[in-house]
Design goal:
Blueprint lengths: L1 H6 L5 H20 L2 H19 L5 H37 L4
Length: about 100
């Protein structure tokens, strides 16, 4: 792709882009005729089918879950901050260093 754009720099960008698209279409076509290519195509079809089966959460459920996660993260952050302050005070009291 990149080498071709420099190698064929004297041609119009439109022609180079069309050639790139044509080569990509031919490559996909050749790939589709191989056994691994057909397996890959089948995998993509199966993945699409499975995505349609997914029950996505509603906007309300997503917002509620996000808020719960944020509150818990904030509580854990405050707890760890207080624990750090307590340990700092304790080590300072024991060693006489810091405070």
């Amino acid at each position: 792709g990149v080498v071709g754009f420099y190698w064929y720099g004297q041609y119009s960008v439109l022609y180079r882009a069309l050639a790139l698209v044509a080569v990509a279409v031919v490559a996909v076509g050749i790939g589709y005729t191989t056994v691994p290519g057909r397996r890959l195509w089948r995998f993509f079809q199966d993945a699409r089918t499975e995505l349609r089966k997914v029950v996505w959460p509603t906007r309300t459920e997503t917002l509620q879950t996000t808020l719960i996660v944020l509150v818990i993260v904030a509580l854990v952050a405050v707890f760890l901050w207080l624990l750090d302050m307590l340990l700092q005070w304790g080590f300072g009291a024991i060693t006489g260093v810091g405070g």
